[in-house]
Amino acid sequence: SRIVTVGAAQLGPIQRAHSRTDVVRRLIDLMRRARAMGCDLVAFPELGLTTFFPRWWMEDQAEVDAFFEREMPGPETRPLFEEAARLGIGFTIGYAELTVEDGRTRHFNTSILVDKAGRIVGKYRKIHLPGHAGHEPWRAFQHLEKRYFEVGNLGWPVSRAFGGIMGLCICNDRRWPETYRVMGMQGVEMVLLGYNTPEHHPPAPEQDHLAEFHNHLSMQAGAYQNSTWVVGVAKAGVEEGCMLIGGTAIIAPSGEIVAKALGRDDELIVAACDLDHAVSYKTTIFNFAAHRRPEAYGLITER
Ligand code: ING
């Protein structure tokens, strides 16, 4: 067996007034608790340093860019990296990435995987950007990821770390089977993802009561159908008047939920995840080499 003891560190709300320093203090507390429980790795949510700012229509780019990190680690996040290295624990965290590439300024919804020595060994930029790009004042709140972020340009890479093959994705990605399959084709054994999911979905309020169900359904299906562990970590609770679901969970390759958060505030759940648990599925029912028929799958890559 190859045990990776994982902490899924759900965050309660981050209000607009909370500084990065305020948030890093909460992250370090959760990281220390995870280490004390024997974790090799602790996973934090999507946009884990700020409030979910795509809920607002903003026209001043400087106001928007204030939610982004220009370097990682930067001055306010370096203490998190230093504490992780001191404790000997790895972590994932999501953040808004502002960078200059090919001579132009780029904005991504990004997540990184950091090893026990504090090195960034994996990086992902969100590909499935939900919501809308224009101002839609009929909504109780906006969901403007298509306005503030570019589509990720790194694909879904996997990293060899923590004794296995680790993958990253972010929030809406978890609802799309293609996300897991692209990583499954690379032999992924654990997918780490964060999410900020409003309970209310203005275009389809009739779905709201199923928000928690659809959250687990998506991740359990992805785990089972690709024989991989899935660790899904929420930023939860009432952020600036908007209720975000919790439901942080650690899911086995069997599709079973092995640990689940109970509330909607800062909450740590831990599980000893045996990466070899996936072998039984990868070598039988989901033996891709033996059973997949890619010649029949062309349509799923069409527009
Ligand atoms: N959040 C949501 C998610 O996919 C959303 C978007 C909200 C979809 C409500 C459906 C209903 O979980 C992010 N950040 O992708």
UniProtKB/TrEMBL annotation:
CDD domains per the UniProt record, alphabetical: DCase
Domain CN hydrolase residues, every copy: 4-275
GO molecular function: hydrolase activity, acting on carbon-nitrogen (but not peptide) bonds, in linear amides
SUPFAM superfamilies: Carbon-nitrogen hydrolase
Keyword Hydrolase belongs to the record: yes
InterPro entries associated with the record: Aliph_Amidase/BUP, C-N_Hydrolase, C-N_Hydrolase_sf
Keywords, in A-Z order: Hydrolase
Annotated PANTHER family: NITRILASE C965.09-RELATED (PTHR43674)
UniProt-recorded name of the protein: Putative amidohydrolase
Species, as recorded: Stella humosa
